[in-house]
Every structure is written in structure tokens, then in C-alpha cells.
């Protein structure tokens, strides 16, 4: 089977590197330059071609998989799928830049992700639950190491969307990517008037409440925990904005 051609020109480096990879491969898969069933370059090859880290590559592949454009077989590789006929969701994550933008996005997320959490509680598999646990463990490890924990944070929310068994929840989350995490756009801890460790510890506890409800398969509890988590983020930012 022929190999996937490299991009015709050196790719520009967007504000979100993973989203840049998603856009590049999505365009080539939908345009037929990468045929259904064709194997994508290895992680190492993508890292070399685009000059990005392995973490960025894995986040991009996760989003492509969630959007139904790629399937990944562990130990074998990632393969292009037949693209669906639907159009792309028209929200540019690069436009989420101000506190107001983040608040508007949080309002949308409260509606969508609360229901996603309820569906995930009803439909999740044991394997998906294990992956959620791993994401939260990685979040806690990042918190202890003093890093931002953005990647496991996004992975936890994406896993919940994938566990709904409704591809449109995962499509939306995959499209927005880590832009859904407020601290990728603004200093959330500063606006919440907490130090960084306090802020992330609070987020971690809220995530644990969501996870526990999903583990118990308590749909209403999962909806309530997700709504509380996102509403807390919104209200902290709103109060800080009013004070300013």
C-alpha cells in the first residue's frame, strides 16, 4: 500500500499545534489525498514532519479518531476511514481568546457536557472507565509535579464524550480540542483569585465527583456533577470579571 505523501508545503504553526495537525490530516482525508484504509505516518514520522512533540501527535490522533476520520490499532498504526458526508463544525478554537469568549463557551459546555456525562454513566464500558481513571491519575501526577495538567484534563472530558456512544458529542469535543480548557486561553487561577495549586486541586476534586457518578452508573448524579464543575468555572470567571 502506498505511503501517505508529506504535506506539499511546510505547515504553518497555528496557536494550537494539535489542531493544526487535525486540520491538515482532515483536509487530506476528506480531499482524497489519503485514501480510506491507507495507513497514516507513524508518530515519529509525524513528529519529524511537523516539528511537534509526541504528546501533540497523540492528542491530534485522538481527535481524528473521535471525529470518525481515523481508526487506531494499538501496536499496528492509524488508518484513514471513509469520511462522512456531513460538513465540518464551524467554530474556530483560535477565536476563543478573551474571558467573554471562555464564558460563552462554558455556557455551551454546561448544556452539552452535562447530558454527555449522564449518557456516559449509562453507556460507558469498563475499558472506558479504566481510561477515565488513568486520565485522572495523570492529572493528579501533573498537579504534584507542578505542571499544567491540560492534556489529562482534556482527555478526561473527551473520554466522557466518547463514552456516550454518540459520535456528535465526541466530534464537537474533538474539534474544539484543548481550547475547552479555560486555562489554555486565560490565567484561570488568577481570575479565580486562588493560587495555581488551590485552583487545580479544586478542579481535580470536581473531576473525581464526575468520575464516581459515572462509575456508579448514576446518570443523574453524573449530570449534576458535570453541571456543578462547569458552572463553578463559569461563576468564578464571571465574579472576577465583575470585580474588574
Structure in words:
- The chain has 244 residues and is mostly helical.
- The chain folds into two domains: 14-80, Winged helix-like DNA-binding domain superfamily/Winged helix DNA-binding domain (Arc Repressor Mutant, subunit A, Orthogonal Bundle); 93-243, Four Helix Bundle (Hemerythrin (Met), subunit A) (Up-down Bundle), CATH 1.20.120.
- The protein has helices spanning 17-30, 43-50, 54-66, 99-123, 126-145, 150-163, 167-176, 188-191, 196-215, 219-243; strands spanning 70-73, 77-80.
- A two-stranded antiparallel ribbon has the order 1-2.
- A hairpin with a 3-residue loop joins strand 1 and strand 2 (77-80).
- The longest helix has 25 residues, at 99-123.
Give a short synopsis of this structure.
One of its GO terms (molecular function) is DNA-binding transcription factor activity. With 244 residues, the chain is mostly helical. The protein has helices at residues 17-30, 43-50, 54-66, 99-123, 126-145, 150-163, 167-176, 188-191, 196-215, 219-243, and strands at 70-73, 77-80.
CATH topology of the largest domain: Four Helix Bundle (Hemerythrin (Met), subunit A)
Shape: globular
Tell me how many strands there are.
2
Share of helix among residues?
Answer: 55-70%
Whole-number count of domains: 2
Tell me what the CATH architecture of the largest domain is. Answer: Up-down Bundle
Number of helices: 10
Beginning-to-end CA distance, first to last residue: 59 Å
- Name the CATH superfamily assignment of the largest domain: GntR ligand-binding domain-like
Q: What's the SSE pattern?
A: HHHEEHHHHHHH
Strand content: under 5%
Q: Assign the CATH class of the largest domain.
A: Mainly Alpha
Radius of gyration, rounded? Answer: 18 Å
Provide mean pLDDT, rounded.
Answer: 81
Tell me the structural class: mainly alpha
Keywords: DNA-binding, Transcription, Transcription regulation
Protein name: GntR family transcriptional regulator
GO molecular function, one term: DNA-binding transcription factor activity
InterPro entries: GntR_C, TF_FadR/GntR_C, Tscrpt_reg_HTH_GntR, WH-like_DNA-bd_sf, WH_DNA-bd_sf
Amino acid at each position: 500500500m502506498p505511503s501517505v505523501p508529506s504535506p506539499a508545503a511546510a505547515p504553518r504553526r497555528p496557536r494550537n499545534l494539535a489542531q493544526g495537525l487535525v486540520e491538515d490530516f482532515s483536509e487530506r482525508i476528506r480531499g482524497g489525498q489519503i485514501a480510506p484504509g491507507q495507513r497514516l505516518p507513524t508518530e515519529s514520522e509525524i513528529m519529524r514532519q511537523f516539528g511537534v512533540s509526541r504528546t501533540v501527535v497523540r492528542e491530534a490522533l485522538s481527535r481524528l479518531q473521535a471525529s470518525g476520520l481515523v481508526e487506531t490499532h494499538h501496536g499496528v498504526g492509524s488508518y484513514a476511514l471513509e469520511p462522512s458526508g456531513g460538513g465540518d463544525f464551524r467554530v474556530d478554537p483560535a477565536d476563543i481568546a478573551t474571558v467573554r469568549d471562555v464564558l460563552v463557551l462554558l455556557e455551551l459546555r454546561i448544556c452539552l457536557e452535562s447530558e454527555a456525562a449522564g449518557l456516559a454513566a449509562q453507556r460507558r464500558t469498563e475499558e472506558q472507565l479504566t481510561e477515565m481513571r488513568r486520565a485522572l491519575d495523570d492529572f493528579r501526577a501533573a498537579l504534584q509535579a507542578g505542571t499544567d495538567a491540560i492534556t489529562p484534563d482534556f482527555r478526561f472530558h473527551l473520554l466522557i464524550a466518547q463514552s456516550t456512544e454518540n459520535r456528535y458529542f465526541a466530534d464537537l469535543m474533538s474539534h474544539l480540542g484543548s481550547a475547552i480548557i479555560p486555562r489554555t486561553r486565560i490565567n484561570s487561577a488568577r481570575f479565580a483569585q486562588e493560587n495555581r495549586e488551590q485552583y487545580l486541586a479544586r478542579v481535580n476534586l470536581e473531576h473525581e465527583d464526575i468520575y464516581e457518578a459515572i462509575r456508579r452508573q448514576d446518570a443523574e448524579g453524573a449530570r449534576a456533577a458535570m453541571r456543578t464543575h462547569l458552572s463553578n468555572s463559569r461563576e468564578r470567571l464571571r465574579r472576577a470579571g465583575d470585580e474588574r
